[in-house]
Amino acid sequence: MTRALAFFELLRPRQWVKNAFVLAGLIFGHAYGEPAMLLAALTATAAFCIASGAVYALNDERDAALDRDHPDKRERPVARGAVLPAEALALSALCAAAALLLAASGGWRLAAIVAAYLALNTAYTLGLKRVAVIDVVAIAAGFMLRLLAGTLGIGIDPSKWLLACGFLLTLFLGFAKRRAEIARLAEDAGRHRAVLESYSVGFLDKAILVCAAAMVGAYRWYTLAAETAQLHGTGSLILTLPWVLLGTLRYLYRLRRRGGGGDPSEELLRDPLLAIAVAGWIATVLWLIG
Questions:
Q1: In terms of residue numbers, what domain contains 14?
Q2: Does residue 217 fall inside a structural domain?
Q3: Fewest beta carbons less than 10 Å away: which of 145, 171, 182, 239?
Q4: 88 within 8 A of 151, measured Cβ to Cβ
Q5: How many independent structural domains does the chain possess?
Q6: Is residue 232 part of a domain?
Q7: pLDDT one-digit tens code per residue, 249-270
Q8: Domain-located, residue 79
Q9: 25-60 confidence digits (pLDDT tens)
C-alpha cells in the first residue's frame, strides 16, 4: 500500500485543480446544460489530469538529485527513494499513453491538443525551464492548451477574450512563482533552479505588476464588450470585477508580505480570503450567466 501511495503521490494529484481551466469553455460557452458537451469536457479534464501526472513523473525523475537538496522538494517520491528513477519514467510513459488514448476517444482535435501539451512540457523539462522568460511563457502556453481543450477540443468556439485573460493570468502566476522561489531560497536559488540565476527581484516585480495590470484591464474590457453582453444575455458581468481585483491584490499581498505565491493551489488552501475571492467570482458568474 505504501508503494502504491508513493506512485500516486508522484502524479501530484493536488496539482490537478489546475486542470479546471479545461471547464472554463463549458461555462462561458453556455454548453454546461448539454449532456454530450459535459461528458466531452469531463473527458478532456480527465485526459489532462493523467497527462499532467505524466509530466510530473518525468520532471521528478530528471530533477531528483537537485530535489534532494531542496527544503520542500526533498520529500518527493523519487528524491526520497520511495520510487526508483526507472519506475518514474515507466509511469510517465504509461500515463502519457493513457492520456492520449482517452483524449482520442473525444476526437482528433482533443488528442492533438493533449499531444501538444505533452510535447511542450517534455521540452520544458528537458531545457526550456532554463531559459528566462521563455520558462514562464511555456507554463502559460500549457494553460492555453487546457483552455483550447475545453473549447476547440470539444466543439466550442474559443473566445479571444477568454484566451487573453487566461494567458495573462498564468503569466502573472508564473512570474509570481519565480519571485517566491527567489525569496524562499535566497542565495541558493540558482542551485535549486538554474533559471533563477537569470532573474532579479526588480525585474520580476515589474513583470508581475505589468501582467497583473494587463490581466485586470483585459478582464474589464471583456465584461464591458458588446459581444460579451450578447453572448451571455447580460451586461452586468462588470459586477464580477471586484472579485478579480480582490483575488489579484490578495495574491500580491501573500507574495510580498506572507512569503506565499509559490503555488496557486497551496495558496487557495492556505488563505481563506483568496479562496473567498475565487468562490465569489465563480458564484457571481454562474448567477449572472446561468
A1: 1-158
A2: no
A3: 239
A4: no
A5: 1
A6: no
A7: 999 998 888 677 677 877 887 8
A8: yes
A9: 888 877 777 888 899 999 999 999 999 999 999 998
